[in-house]
Amino acid sequence: MGEGLQEWEEEIQKKIAVGLASIERGNVVDGEVVMARLSKKLRKARETQG
User: How confident is the model at residue 50, as a pLDDT?
Assistant: First the structure.
């Protein structure tokens, strides 16, 4: 379980870095869409682990 979680955390960190770089370039991000997608992914991750 720890290995999978570590890989998932590394993937999330990479995605955050990409997202921040996009924001710095002036790209607009729809916060509601991002939060909806994140909530869905977190819910899915909890279901697979629980």
Answer: 65
